User: Fold these one by one.
Assistant:
Number 1:
Amino acid sequence: MSSPPLEHGRLSPQTRPYAIGYMVCIGAMGLAMPVVAMTFRYLHPNGVLAALVAALPAAPLVGAMAFLGLWVRAEPDEYQRAVRVEAMLWALGVVFAVYTMLGFLMVWGPLGASKISAGLLLALIFPAWLTIYSGAVGLVRRRYR
């Protein structure tokens, strides 16, 4: 059986490029967010430029999603791969359930569209999934012990 992904603080050689790419993309998104906020606050772009600037933080997130998938595919340890895939499925289910409930609460319930921005909720889908996935990895690993 091959070593776990972070044994001795190191990633396996097969997954290291994908993990690094993933971390670079998440860092780029973290840098893009204040740039976009400052651009809209001080420069007030319009039209196509406004759409391009608003979409800027999404590009690194798409890259992060791709690297995460490639990372799982390149994982040589079947146990580690199975843990990650199961955690991804649990996270997907939780995000679907929560966002479906929020959607109904916004349409017919106390969270009317005037109280919560639908755009903000949509922008937080992947970060919410990633947060739940990170916790689910630990729970799934604990269950297999």
Note: The two ends are 16 Å apart (CA to CA).
Number 2:
Amino acid sequence: MNGDKLAIGAVAALAALATLKRRGSRSLSADQEAALKGMVDSGDPDQIRQALELVKTLDAKIKLTVNLRGAELKGVDFSGLNLDGAIFRSANLRNTNFSGADLSSTDMVDADLIGANLSNASLIDANLNEADLRRSDLTNVKASMASFVRADLQQADLTGADLSFSSLRRSRCVLANLSGANLSDSNLIHCNMSRVNLSGANLRNALMGYIYMPNADLRGADLRGADLTGSIVSGTKFDGVKYDERTIWPAGTNDLADAPVGVAD
């Protein structure tokens, strides 16, 4: 019965909103707002997309909070949607399409995002602690101030990503591609970055202490002000890196004469 009422309410909301759109109106009645919220709360991806797209189209002044904690959303298309503040904690988001979506301040703790497409999405101030992002596409993602603590980013593609002021403490980034990424002022302490590609990355003022980073590629990276105290970097390529007197190398010295080959500022 509740499902029938929800379906009827959704149809009524869509019809009413279509009328509003034709009239150029942006105001919604209490019943229309309730119907839209009911569509979002249904947990049905199709109804959620319809509701969010209608609000976006109308530019209506209404906040729809999406709560899909623990939901089964494998392969769902959320591309381009405004999901600011949405809750996806512990949800199954394998191969889900979030490309171009606004995921600012979302809760994705412990979410399964294996193979997900988050390219060009906004993850500013999002919480992805302990999320599984193996083989995910995060190219050009905007994730400043986001948290990836203990997240699994193995073989993820973060080319050109903005991770400034973010935290990746104790995350696993084995074979991840972070070439050209902005990791300035980020916290990478105790990460597993074996064979990671950080070529051309901006690591200015990054906390990189006690990282396991053998056979990594940091060619052309900016390490000015970075702290690599205690990190394991055997076999890592440092050709052409930028550094200055504030750069702390794994040996714990600021003596540039002992530093790897690079370009002093």
Note: Strands lie at 241-243, 262-264.
Number 3:
Amino acid sequence: MLPLKSPATPVLDPALAQRPVPCLDHGTGIIPAQGLRTALARGMLIVAPKDPPIKPDQVQPASLDLRLSTAAWRMPAAVLPRHESDETIDTMVKRIGGTPIDLCEKQTLIRGEVYLVRLMEAVKLPRGISGFANPKSSSGRLDMLCRVIADRTPVYDDLPEGFCGSLYLQITLRSFDITLQAGARLAQLRLRRGISPPTAIAMRTMQQGAAPMIARRDALPLFDRMGQAPPRMPVHDLRTLKDGITLSIDVSATTPSARVGYRAKDNAPPVDIDQRHLNIDTYWEPVTAQKNSVRIEKDSFYILKSREAIQVPEDRAAELVDMDTRFGDFRSHYAGFFDPGFGLASPDTRGVLELRSYETPMILNHEQPIARIVYHPLTCATDTLYGADLGSHYDGQQLRLGKQFL
């Protein structure tokens, strides 16, 4: 593990480190932006000596963007450290024979390969604070499986309370070669105080109250910040609310040629993640519906959208959860984290689905259950909302590709 340092103080008000902050020091739930800034000031989120300090714009409404460092390896396979021997990532890389790569300059990572990159950010978590990570939306929409691993931690994306050490990102590319370099932000970290699993009662109260957070496409505004109570909207399935609210797929088409999704093309050129306005037709082919159904080919990657509109209030965050395999043998998302404020400005904001079928081709029907969404409480309402004012790329989204194609 590399030696670590605290971030440069110009990023934040040093006084934050001294005074109590309720959303970091009290309560149970995901820590919002103002709590993350205090965590930075207190040295809970740090960087290695040769890496640049954490930037203010890395702090999102309820997460921190993580940056790739220059240290990377091409790995022979995906792997986790051995738990029984307290194995570090450095020891693991040597054990299985990782090949070093320098990301000081742009490098093109090859699809089908597995890579490991040390992240600039590291953590010094106190007791009572744990961490969990997920890919950023733009990573998921490029079919990049990005998972955080750490020393002596034999699971992906979870950091136990009290963890201290460097973080690494395991990257697997499935559809495109990807060109990137140090500083790229492919994943994000959330901090959590205590454990607050959602309950069926809490989920039912949120969804069936005067301001439900999930609504059908033709619903009126479903979370009215001005206090007006919109009508209640149905959902597909309230039987398993403790596991989330069911979302379905939207493959309805007004005309036979109407596009309802995208399928990644084989043998497309590399995607430079820093570029914008890439030609969609070079990388994607349109998906059209036949009688409100689409055929999903085995091991192909698709971008689709949910039938339901989604909104996330200021005191909640949300994430997508895979369906039970009884609903189909597929993966419906890679990223799937919704910041507080998502959809509040646009009542018809949809969830974008990153879908891959594993075992066989399959036909998906309009309104077929495709994923579940779980709402998690924050320790307090965030002071930074997802949306256009923050420069969020997917504010008000319908069917939308990654930011490289916008």
Note: The chain has six helices and 25 strands.
Number 4:
Amino acid sequence: MINTPLFVGQLVKLSPLEPERDAETIARWTNEPEYLRQLTDGPAQPLSTAQVKKQLEKATKGPGGMRRELPFAIHAHEGGNMLGSLRFERIQWSHGDAQLRLAFGAPEAWEHGEAAETLHLALHY
């Protein structure tokens, strides 16, 4: 029997994105150029809390079962602060294939191993 939690590492833990909880934090990050560069190759555009909440609601309320997108919040293992987000996009369940989008908004998570551990957790999913 495996006793290793699927979404918990030594530095980070993954949880579902929750529009009510996470929209304000992500909206604040959209005012930071470093965060915006991670999200899109299009023009950078800061977003309001309401805009982010609407996007998160759309992403988290997809049809059940064979969803084509799975979004997660990345939290610090110690303290629980939100550090960023992880999304599996364009999922092809029958092929075991997906695109992965990873963005860290919290500067304290840059270059300390959180991204590597998040990728490790995602790839083992």
Note: The first helix runs from residue 19 to 29.
